[in-house]
Write a structure and sequence with these properties.
Layout lengths: L1 E3 L1 H10 L2 H6 L5 E3 L2 E4 L11 E4 L4 E4 L5 E2 L1 H9 L3 H12 L5 E3 L7 H21 L4 H9 L4 H6 L3 E3 L5 H8 L4 H6 L3 E3 L6 E3 L4 E7 L5 E8 L7 E3 L15 H4 L8 E5 L2 H9 L5 E3 L7 H8 L4 E7 L2 H17 L2 E7 L5 H8 L1 H9 L2 E2 H12 L5 H15 L5 H15 L3 H11 L14 H16 L1 H10 L8 H17 L4 H7 L3 H12 L7 H13 L1 H5 L7 H8 L16
Parallel strand pairs: 14-15, 14-16, 16-17
Antiparallel strand pairs: 1-7, 2-3, 3-4, 4-5, 5-6, 8-11, 9-10, 11-12, 12-13, 17-18
Helix pairs in contact: 1-4, 1-23, 3-4, 11-14, 14-15, 16-17, 17-18, 20-21, 20-22, 20-24, 20-25, 22-24
The structure holds zinc ion.
Length: about 575
């Protein structure tokens, strides 16, 4: 996989202004050197959110949200970091360079452009070609209206082996690029290429920004497989993408709930009928990567399936994942043999809503499906079911949730709770207890921010810090991370602006420390003295005795009694 080069990230960041970008989303008002608006990241009437132009960062005094311009776009648009950089690069007219991946491999943007171009070709064929009549009939039969077909950019891939290849040639698109985009396949004897999708209805697969990155093609003949998808490419990984998420993400802001189905039409037909917030896996079971992606948008996931055995199995698999990921999971059962689109077409949108809005909590679902399969009138049968439930409960990472589930078993089966817990403890896989992130003691955190502020504001301080304090000697984890990146940039460019680091550092804790350092009001006179104090304190015995994290207020007072005076606390600027 290719990554956007750091040079490109900085080029983008330097080409745009955070005030300009943010004011495209929020009504900013200028007040004493910065720009203010009600915060988009928490609910408020007053304006606690401000953007500081000369430092190129934003911060909210209400909820603590903070970061640079790229980070703002990530959070506001709910997209990932590379997508945000690509979006801003497009705005600024910058061509991004990528590192990693195969050296000779095509660039991401060329792959996107090729897929977008192909979507246009397929779309036009669906609308105009005589050959596509069966495709148009198919969509009509499945209840897809012309406007819906337009919105989802449905298309038709021609029969024959080189319909798309020929058009690509005429448009100066190379076979290699077509292949890297997943649209062409190389012949086994190496004698050339042929179209991957032939005689199929084409469903573009979109990334979160709505750009075409792959396709699913449904055959119109009696052949298997009914559906084929683009292969894994530099853009597309079916274990990481969900069909329809670009459309659903804005619809689920209030409900914080997404419904997961399996097919393209299961998303599109309900969407057309006004039932939003449905996405589909792309011919694969739900993965952990899917869930990580979904966690950004919702807290609740509803698996939707009809009652047949395959659906049930998929639900159980998804369930193990979701329990482990600690999300709220529900299961909605459709009438046997029917998909969401069938329900909409036969019984209307309200019938589907009724099913989706009253899902069963997953644990209750599991209990019901296990008891249905086992004779629970006998002690042996009962204990078999309880054992299977406990196995799953053991994987739940959240102890409170675990306790609730145990209580449910007690209520349902009348088993002694203590017996369950002792059984559960045996069941529990040997897990390394996750160490809680070490929170730096206040003295360490403060000194770290002071050092960073000096580094960023004064070239001589920067040079001296690089000579005398290696990154790993910075006082807390957050500032160690920033110092590493800052030194690296300083080496390369000779100077570092705080906003450079905001663009490149991706750790949340480090970003927070960085914005705090950037907020310290810098006083150019007395820099030398302050640097001495900081260095002296960093190297002092008292300071070394302050364990990172292990500190209470009174310890801090004792440790600081003889320490040099560190005046300028990183306190937020006064609100106008
Ligand atoms: Zn806020």
């Amino acid at each position: 996989l290719a990554y956007i080069s750091e040079e490109s990230i900085l080029e983008v960041k330097n080409a745009i202004d955070i005030v300009e970008v943010v004011s495209g989303f929020l009504p900013l008002k200028r007040k004493s050197g910065s720009y203010w608006a009600p915060c988009p990241f928490h609910d408020e009437k007053t304006a606690s959110f401000h953007v500081v132009p000369e430092k190129q960062f934003y911060k909210c005094f209400g909820c603590g949200a903070h970061g640079g311009v790229i980070d703002f776009v990530v959070k506001f648009e709910k997209i990932d970091f590379p997508a945000a950089v690509e979006l801003l690069a497009e705005k600024a007219g910058i061509t991004l360079r990528y590192t990693g991946g195969t050296a000779a491999g095509p660039r991401r943007e060329d792959l996107v452009r090729t897929n977008e171009w192909a979507a246009g070709v397929f779309r036009k064929l669906l609308l105009t070609s005589a050959e596509a009549e069966s495709a148009r009939k198919f969509l009509e039969r499945r209840g897809v209206a012309p406007e819906t077909s337009e919105a989802w950019r449905l298309g038709y891939a021609p029969e024959g082996w080189d319909g798309l290849l020929q058009r690509a040639r005429r448009n100066g698109i190379s076979e290699k690029l077509l292949m890297a985009s997943g649209l062409a396949v190389e012949r086994e004897d190496g004698s050339g290429f042929y179209d991957r999708f032939r005689g199929r209805v084409m469903f573009p697969i979109f990334d979160i920004r709505g750009k075409v990155i792959a396709f699913g093609g449904r055959t119109l003949k009696d052949e298997t497989p009914k559906f084929i998808n683009s292969p894994e490419t530099a853009l597309f990984s079916k274990g990481r993408q969900l069909f329809g998420l670009h459309a659903a993400k804005d619809d689920v802001e209030e409900s914080r709930t997404l419904h997961i189905v399996e097919g393209y039409l299961d998303v599109i037909v309900p969407w057309q009928a006004g039932v939003k917030g449905i996405v589909a896996t792309l011919g694969t079971a739900l993965t952990r990567d899917h869930l990580k992606l979904l966690k950004r948008y919702v807290d609740r996931v509803v698996l939707v399936f009809d009652s047949d055995a395959a659906g049930q199995k998929a639900a159980e698999r998804g369930l193990d994942l979701l329990l482990a990921e600690d999300m709220d999971l529900f299961v909605a059962k459709l009438p046997p043999g029917e998909d969401t689109d069938d329900v909409v077409l036969k019984e209307g949108a309200d019938a589907l809503r009724k099913v989706l809005d009253r899902p069963q909590e997953v644990f209750a679902f599991l209990v019901a499906s296990l008891t249905a399969k086992t004779d629970t009138t006998t002690p042996a049968g009962k204990s078999r079911v309880v054992d299977q439930l406990l196995e799953r409960i053991a994987t739940v990472p959240n102890p409170v949730k675990q306790a609730f589930l145990v209580k449910e078993i007690v209520a349902k089966f009348g088993v002694d709770e203590r017996a369950l817990w002792s059984r559960l403890r045996r069941e529990e896989p040997p897990r390394k207890p996750a160490a809680p992130p070490k929170k730096a003691s206040p003295a360490r955190a403060k000194l770290g921010r002071e050092l960073l502020s000096l580094f960023l504001n004064d070239p001589e301080c920067a040079a001296r810090l690089r000579r005398e304090v290696p990154p790993d000697r910075y006082p807390d984890e957050a500032t160690v991370l920033i110092a590493r990146k800052a030194y690296e940039l300083h080496e390369r460019a000779g100077a570092v602006h705080g906003s450079d680091l905001l663009a490149l550092v991706r750790d949340e804790g480090a970003l927070e420390a960085l914005t705090e350092a950037m907020e310290i009001r810098f006083n150019p006179s007395g820099v030398a003295k302050q640097l001495e104090q900081c260095l002296g304190y960093l190297k002092s015995e008292e300071f070394r005795r302050i364990e990172p994290g292990a500190l209470r207020g009174e310890d801090l007072l004792a440790a600081k009694r003889d320490a040099p005076d560190l005046r300028r606390l990183p306190k937020p600027a006064a609100r106008p």
